[in-house]
Design a protein that fits this description.
The complex is a heterodimer of chains A (107) and B (122). By secondary structure, chain A is an all-beta fold. Chain A is built from no helices and 11 strands. In chain A, a hairpin with a 3-residue loop joins strand 5 and strand 6. The termini of chain A are far apart. In chain B, strands 2, 4, 5, 6, 9, 10 and 11 form a 7-stranded mixed sheet that branches. In chain B, strands 1-3-8-7 form a 4-stranded antiparallel sheet, with no helix packed on it. The chains are: A mainly beta (107), B mainly beta (122). The interface between A and B is medium-sized, with 25 and 22 residues.
Chain lengths: 107, 122
């Protein structure tokens, strides 16, 4: 199975901050990398697919980049509603696997 | 509006069984693969199983293979997960998630249900 790692595991930030989360795959996954946001008590929500494509309805302050094994999720100006946990997911091979998550909380 | 509504969770004894359902509306159910993803309390996301839109092909995580069975009734717009030989480590919130295409693999989970909690304990 492909192992996904994320860093940092958590971070504290303020509204307006630029936030960057990295995700690394243990093997080549091309651009089959998705990002999800999960708020407490809620289901995950797709933010970015194909490493850099923005899901419909997701604010443009979210962006993704990378290919191969190294990927990044960037939030350019953190808003109150963005405090959540973020997961990367590879869908290049079965089984699909998720990263352990990065919790973004209030500084 | 797309809706996915899970049900069937609850308390089960080790070695017992439960059947989860996911009723969907708002999209052409039979044209999309579907998945089950679980999340143990305070933990991350773990993919469990997937089924193609036609229902002809399925796949499972090693952790549940041989114990869980995914199925779908396209006439009822409903996805199922039959869980047998339950273990304590199966305790989790179980989400159904829609894939963006008819077959699984190289896709994304673009719609999720709200989840149903399964607790396995004596």
């Amino acid at each position: 199975d492909i192992q996904m790692t994320q860093s940092p595991s958590s971070l504290s930030a303020s509204e307006g901050d630029r936030v960057t989360i990295t995700c690394r795959a243990s093997q080549f996954i091309s651009r089959y990398l998705n990002w999800y946001q999960q708020k407490p008590g809620k289901a995950p929500k797709l933010l970015i697919y194909g490493a850099s494509d923005l899901q419909s309805g997701v604010p443009s302050r979210f962006s993704g980049s990378g290919s191969g094994t190294d990927f990044t999720l960037t939030i350019t100006s953190l808003q109150r509603e963005d405090f959540a946990t973020y997961y990367c997911q590879q869908s290049y091979t079965s089984p699909v696997t998720f990263g352990p998550g990065t919790k973004v909380d209030v500084k | 509006e797309v809706q996915l509504l899970e049900s069937g969770g609850g308390l089960a004894q080790p070695g017992g069984s439960l059947r989860l359902s996911c009723a969907v509306s708002g999209f052409s159910f039979n044209t999309y693969a579907m998945n089950w993803v679980r999340q143990a309390p305070g933990k991350g996301l773990e993919w469990v199983s997937a089924i193609t839109g036609s229902g002809h092909s399925t796949t499972y995580a090693d952790s549940v293979k041989g114990r869980f069975t995914i199925s779908r009734d396209n006439s009822k717009n409903t996805l199922y997960l039959q869980m047998n030989s339950l273990r304590a480590e199966d305790s989790a919130i179980y989400y159904c998630a829609k894939e963006n295409k008819a077959v699984f693999g190289k896709g994304r989970f673009d719609q999720w249900g709200q989840g149903t909690l399964v607790t396995v304990s004596s």
